[in-house]
Structures are given as structure tokens and as C-alpha cells.
Specification:
The structure is a homotetramer. The first copy, chain A, is built from eleven helices and 14 strands. Chain A has about 290 residues and is of the alpha/beta class. In chain A, α1 packs across α11 and α4 packs antiparallel against α11. Chains A and D meet through α4 and α11 of A and α4 and α11 of D.
Chain lengths: ~290, ~290, ~290, ~290
Amino acid sequence: MDKMKFLVAGGDSRQTYLAQRLAREKAKVFTYGLDSANKAQRCTVLTELSQMAEQADVLVLPLVSSADGKSATAPFLDQDIPFAALADCLKAGALVVGGRISEQTAEFFESRGFAVADYFLREELMVKNCIPTAEGALQIAMEELPITISGARVLITGFGRVARATARIFTAVDAQVTVCARKYADLAWAELYGFVPMHISQIGEKISKFDLVINTIPAMVLNHGILAKLDKKSLVIDLASKPGGVDFETARQLDLKAIWALSLPGKVAPVTSGEIIAETVINMLLERGVRL
Amino acid sequence: MDKMKFLVAGGDSRQTYLAQRLAREKAKVFTYGLDSANKAQRCTVLTELSQMAEQADVLVLPLVSSADGKSATAPFLDQDIPFAALADCLKAGALVVGGRISEQTAEFFESRGFAVADYFLREELMVKNCIPTAEGALQIAMEELPITISGARVLITGFGRVARATARIFTAVDAQVTVCARKYADLAWAELYGFVPMHISQIGEKISKFDLVINTIPAMVLNHGILAKLDKKSLVIDLASKPGGVDFETARQLDLKAIWALSLPGKVAPVTSGEIIAETVINMLLERGVRL
Amino acid sequence: MDKMKFLVAGGDSRQTYLAQRLAREKAKVFTYGLDSANKAQRCTVLTELSQMAEQADVLVLPLVSSADGKSATAPFLDQDIPFAALADCLKAGALVVGGRISEQTAEFFESRGFAVADYFLREELMVKNCIPTAEGALQIAMEELPITISGARVLITGFGRVARATARIFTAVDAQVTVCARKYADLAWAELYGFVPMHISQIGEKISKFDLVINTIPAMVLNHGILAKLDKKSLVIDLASKPGGVDFETARQLDLKAIWALSLPGKVAPVTSGEIIAETVINMLLERGVRL
Amino acid sequence: MDKMKFLVAGGDSRQTYLAQRLAREKAKVFTYGLDSANKAQRCTVLTELSQMAEQADVLVLPLVSSADGKSATAPFLDQDIPFAALADCLKAGALVVGGRISEQTAEFFESRGFAVADYFLREELMVKNCIPTAEGALQIAMEELPITISGARVLITGFGRVARATARIFTAVDAQVTVCARKYADLAWAELYGFVPMHISQIGEKISKFDLVINTIPAMVLNHGILAKLDKKSLVIDLASKPGGVDFETARQLDLKAIWALSLPGKVAPVTSGEIIAETVINMLLERGVRL
């Protein structure tokens, strides 16, 4: 069988590591519009799309595929890359993958007979991204707290993906981790994993005993009333996306140190982050019957 | 507030520990028909139901509540305990809890105005029972294998509750644990927890490399074709309920050691097992607004 | 370079696994007087020493090399193997290794120009043997206690090799492990490893709170006064060799379950045990400049 | 019994936390010359030594007790504190403790009838300091490496106190940790703790495979020849004191990132650091028969 051909176009440094990771499989990888200072190894780096002699089986768009639904985001180029130019580099029926693909973007490619899929909707990517997120939270805690994490009293609110990974890493470095959740089954899991379980109804009563509070619930959990009970020396890290779960304005007024840590994977571990996307793309191909 | 009154009637040794665990809360606990050789501490042990001066708020039936839908199983008595006699000891509107409650049993109590609930359907009980199950599997492995578990190559099929707890404990004692599942998100979780992930499509190809195979999938995973590839010195433990997942007849013919380990919690840790049920009953009351 | 030639003579089932492990290196391994029902794979099994065509570079004697200083212990033969017959199978200047080599045994071989070394005096063997010992202690605890090890309150006396490995494995399976020692530096290590440190002066005051007490100190630590304070349901395991550290007579009178668990490695993991000796012999050769 | 009286004089922020920690015991704690911006809680803060109404049982000098053998280092005051003034605040026969006490300092106090002891020579302090050191190394690795520590290939040279604690924390966060040492017993311990053992003779052959190399040996281990074989993307952290173990000049020429991380406890965790000293002082008193 011929090697699969990938065109990786646009995006930040993670796409370079994604391209390198794909090139470690049986695959031929072309890149365009990536960081020119950090060339993707084992890949064919194009300076013009017209240099592409062969047509690609798979087009890999960036994490935020497009700002306008017409072109791929390309911060390392002067301007974004028009989808039309990318489409010309693809085989008929090729697969287009990207992150946070808008309806408009999907329509552009699907109307031209390409298959479109979003790697950011894949659960295994979300799970794998929990590791750099948890490590990022640990790094912030280490940088901000004047005590060792070993022995620190840490409260984690919620017990979804990010909370589990974060509770696990803080426990691993010998913090005393309490997990606060609503469902008794979640509390049973927390206990099984060695965390102290705490029903969410007790948060107000017990919040003052923690050196570090990490929120993972995207709803206002750490509101004025709760923050007011916190020890002044404690640190708050919010890992929840979108609305967040911490009243930062109140935290500021109370002189509490509170940090909203978003998009940690790309910040703390761009190499691993890019590799995680590559591995997810490989799984997407496997499910379509293609083994690299 | 008055102390809650419990009547714990029938069942095996776990009910004794259940009763003792309830008595550690603010509660008054009566027992009837339990093991007379191992009296429940801090409980009022009745030798006749007629000795019960007060009426109970909660009746706790055994794990298999009833064999005939008319009486509570009572292996330590000459005969099972008629539901009618138990109903006479309850307050109006009392709660009746038990395990694997049949329709007929539920109807008996509900038609008399009692609330009925099955603690065996509670997810937190199933999660908590995974710990004694996993410990039981480890104990069997230690007893049967002539090698240390540290360094042993262990394959666990499936990634449900029991598989997660079992993979965790074997990893904790330094086995090399591979988890075999179908969904990529499960494999991502397995990797996050430090297990080697393996897609189930590879089981035939790789099965010969393991010292121990633990099945948790209730479907014929370890069939003739797979068992035939196993190393003759390896051990198979099946933790899957109902149909199981191992072709034991083939294992016998191939002279493979294969053990179907069912109902481990009651066997390896009856005390903890009884306490888990008690804690589940306490949660059930909390959800009904009753804090002991 | 020619392959090294080993003659493994006498001993119990561990010597079979030792021979197999050596044969996995670049080495030619002859065996004599081992278990005939369980032939060492990849080895040349001799039924008479006279069948040995080549002379060996290394003679491996059993764990207890000799009962009389004149012959190698050989429980699988009708009688022990005379050293003189073994010496005839060796090259001039060959190395003789064995366990617990007596002065008389050493003299026999040294006076004939052979080098003699005891693998049982090697520290790495003692360290490696701590794993099967700790696993054996865990197995006993699982078999004897009616509670899960997860959550069990375990006291370990001493902080030598065996104590460290045992505290580690019980902590790994989520027991609450307290380590009791005299030196503050040992207590600091215990804390670093996640165990609760307790100065030995407090043992009398706190002993009643444990479900399991594991002694590793070869001196009478668990004497009458201490045992009398133990909870009647608790279990005592003594891992200390020679005089032991538990007053078993008092334990019997108090109806306490106390188990003296000696020589666990050979009992719970004879395969691993034999391999540990083989790896130690390989190190001994490395130190003499011989790489297999 | 009367409360013990402590005078904590001079030093950096750690002495504040030390004083606070002592004050949590049954003790009366006076401080002089500490950070005025961060007052030690539960302590009596003196602005002049003459304010001290009572005489102290114990004088606690800073980590580096004295620069000149005549006065206590006091970076928060305009000038160091003359020993003579401090001696006037002590009971006859009081205990003077400090870190890195010089002969001249010891002689000053001993000649006046005081007992003198160095807490920096205590092994439990060295052990406890390994935790902030290991956390500091992890923090640096997280900050400098573009990959997750989970999955990173880490080599640790040496197997003393710092190496053990560092190997443990990196393993806890799922790095693949190899320990490189000379003694086979150390390698056996490394393996028991779940690290990959590697004899130091193999370092040249295998060094290129690591993402991170952490040296703990105070001798030139990572010399020109070894550094030249390192992957250019890998990171070197030197935790060894005094001469260090990395040829930093060569590292610079090779464009390798190499960091000499000294005195991490005071930098990454001043609170814990001060508490560790306080706990050591408490032990020193216990050994003199004084329980706070």
C-alpha cells in the first residue's frame, strides 16, 4: 500500500509537533505555514503550496481551524491560508480534520466532496489533554505556594475528567487531596482512588482548612460567600472553561490570590499537545479502516 | 430529634457488620436472626421479634432479600422470617431496604404503605464493592502464581468498574498491567492511569505474553481460539458475572489453570462488605432528608 | 569468547528456575540432582555427573549449600552429592558459589584451588528478596483478615530492608501504614515515603488502634505487656528471623492470632526466588570481569 | 512545668516560619531581627533585645549562624546581632542551636557555659529537606521542558538521599525514571522502588535517550564526553552541592540547557523549610529529655 499523504497547514507550534509525530508513522507529511524557525523533522516543508507535487489524502487544519470560515488560521504567515488553495492540494474524497470546525468551514469542504471531522470533539483527545492540564495546575501551585505540595491540603471541586487527573497528580506528590462532588457514586470513586470524599453541601463549612482550592466546575461555585471563608494565605486555581467557577472580582477585593488557568496544554507542553492531536488523527483514520 | 430505629433481620455474617456499622451512627439498632455466635456489638439482639418494644423506622433485609417473596432469608435460623411478622415491627410508612428485591417482595411491603428501595442497585455500592473484588483477585493471583506479582505481566480485559479497580491494585504492587478495551477514550484513560493500553483487536496477537489474564467482560472473550494461544504456565481469573467470559471447558482440556471468582466481597472481606451496605443505606436516608 | 559453563547441582525447586534464568544469558548450563518432574528448560539435564563432557567454569550449590560440609544437599536424589564428584567436573580455578557456605565447605573447595563465594551474603540479594517477603506478608493479611487491606490500620515495627518493602506494598494497596522506629532520621524517611511516623516510645500507648501489626525487629518487641493491649480482632505477623520479635506463647494465651512467617520468598514465589539468585550470581561474575 | 522559652534571632524569612511552628507547641517564642513585614504569629516580636523580660531556655540562630563568629546574621536589620547581646538574654546553661555553626561561634557560647548544637548536621533535617529539593527539581523541569513530565524519560545519577526523593517524585508523576549508580545493592533498591536500574558503566552508551538528566553526585559525572552525547533538546539539572557534577562551560558551548539548582528548599518552600528546622529543634530537645 502507498504511504498516506498528509498536508498540515497553519496553526501554532503544536502543528509542527503534530506533523513530526505523524511522520514517525508510515506516512508522508507536507507542512505549510508553520513556524519556519522550528522546522518539522522528517517532513517536507513547503514554502509555497504550489510546490506540492502529490495530492494529499488528509488535510490537517489547526486547533482553531479558521477565523472566518474561508481560510486556515496561520499566525506564522502574513495572512491566513485560503481554503480554496488547500482544496487544490487534496485528492478527491480526501479527509479534512481540524479543531473547533465551524459550520461554514465544514460546508466549504463537504460541498466539494471532502469528508470533514473535528478532532477536538474526540473524547480520547479530551482525556489525554487532562495530563498537561493537571501538570500545569501543579506547576502553578508549586510556583505560587511557599509550602511544599507534599503535605498541602488541596480541595478539588467537581469530579469530571480534569478533576480526576488533577486529583491524581496532586495525590501522587503527597498532597492531602479532598474531592468535593454531589453524586455519591463520584464520592465512592474518589475514595477508591485515595482521595478524601466530601459532599458539596459541606463546602462552606470546610473551605477554610485548605491551602489550595482548584475548581473544575464551569458554574459559580466559589462565589462571594465561599471565598470570604477562605484562609487569606490560600491559593485558588480555576481550571473551568467558559464562564469559569470563581468570582474573581470578589477574590481581588478580598486580596486572595486567584488564577484562571485556561488552555494549559498548549502553554505548558506544546510538544505533547501536538502529539496528542496526531494520535487522535491516527485513531480517526483507524476507525475509517486506515492503518498507517 | 429521636434516634432512628433500625431492624436488621436475616442474612449472613455481613448483616452483623452492617448492624454494627449503623450502631456507630446516632441510631438504635435491633437485630433478629443473625449469627448468634458473633453478636453485633452496640446492638439490641432479639431472640424473638415479639421482644421488640419500639417500632422501627427502617427495616434492613439481607443481600438476597427473599427466596420466596414472602419471607426474609435467614440461614442462621431454622426457617426464613415471614414478612408479615417483620411488618408488625415497623412504624407506619417505614422504609424497607434490601438487596435484589423481587417484584413480589416490593409489592408485599408497598401494598402495606411502606417505602421500598434496593441498595444493590445503588452505584456507589457497586463502586465500593470493587475494592474487595480487586483485593480478592490479587489474593488469588498471589496464591496461585509461583512468581511475584511485582514484575508480572498482567492483562485485564474490559475497562468498567471492576477492571479499573483491579488494574489499579495490580499496578500498585508493581505488576506490568495492560488494559484491553475497544473504545479509544477508554484506552486514553487507561494510559492516564499508568496502564499499557491495548485495543481489543490485538488480543489474539499478544495474549501469549502474559503471566495472568483477568477477564471482566460478561461475554465470551477468552474463547477456544484465544485460550489456545496462552502460555501454559499462565493463570486465568474470570471476574465477570452471569455468563462469564471464559470457556472453562476448553481451559480444562488445555490444562490451563482458570478460576471463576464470583461474589468476592462477601468471601474475602465480610466486615468491609457489611459496612459498605450500611454506608449505602446511610446515603439513601440522606437523600430522603434524614441525617443520622 | 566461549560461553561460560555452569553446573547447577542439588537444591530445591528454586535451583531449577535459577538454572533456567542463567540459560537465558549467553551461557551453557548443566544441571544435576534437581527436580526431575520439572525439567529446567534450555539446560542440559544430567542423570549422572559422568555424563558431563566439558568442565564447568562455575559450580552453583544450593541455598543451604551443605549439611555436612562434604556434600551438596540434594532432596530430589536418594543422597547428597559428594563435593569430590562435583570438583571433578570443574575447570582448574573455577568459581564455586552457594548459599550459607560453611567454613568446612569453603575449605574443601579453596584447598583444591577453587574460588568460593556466598551469594546469600550479597546485599542486592537481600534487597531483592524483600519483594517476595512483602508480597507474602500481604497475602497472609488478605487471607486472615475479614476486612479489606484498603483502609486497614497497619503498624510496622522497625525500618530496615524488610520493613521498607512491606510498608511500601501495604501503602500501595491503600492501607494506613504507621512505621514505628527509634531513630528520627528513619522516621523522616518513613514520612517522606508517605507512612505515618511513630517513635517507638509510643508503641504501648497506640498499639490498640491497629488491625494488623507486622514486626520486623529480631528482638522481643511484642512482649506480654504490648500484646495485652492489642485489640482481640487484630492480626500479628512476625517477619523477623532467628529469635523473632513476638511472644507467641502469650499471644496463644490471649487468643490473639499471631503468625511467624519465615522464608517467604521460597514459599510464595519460588520462580522469582531462583531468578534472584541467578541475577546475583551474574553480578558476582561481572565484578570478576566476566560479562555473560 | 513552665513553658519553654525560645529566642529566635536573625536570619531570613524561614526563621519567621520556624518561630511560628515552635509557637504551635507548648512554648513561648520571642523573635528579634526577623522580617518586620511578615510578623511571626503567636510570637512576641521584640524591636529591642532589651524588651525581653524573661530569659530564654533556647536561642535559635539562623541557617548560616554567623558571618564573623561574633554576631548572628540579620539581613532584615541594619547590622548583625552581637552574640554578647544575645547571651545576656539566656538562662544559665541554655541551649544554643543554629545552622553551619563555626568553631569560633561554638567557642563563644560554650566558653560562657551554654550548650551548642548544629541543626544542619542532623540527618532527619537533611532527609526532610529532600522533599522541597525534589519538588524544586520537578518545578524547574515543568517550566523548562515543552513536553509533559508524564512519559518523559528521566535519568537520575546517584542514589543518595536527594536522588531517592527525586526519583520518587518524578515516578509519581509518571515519568520513566532510570537511576544510574555503581553499587548493585543500590540498583536493587532502585528496582524495588519502581525505577529502571542502570549501572554507571553504561551511562555513555545510553545517555542520548533521555529528555532530562538530573545529577546528584558531587563529582564530575556529566563531563565533556557525556554531555556531547546528549540530545540537544534535553535538559540537565544539577542538584549536587559544592563542586557540582556538570561541566557547565561545555554545556554552554554545546548549546545545551543546563541548570545548577542550589539551595532549593529555601527558595521553593520557605514556610516548609522553616518548619522543618523547627521540628528538628524539637527532636533535639526530645533527645535532651525535654518534651514541649
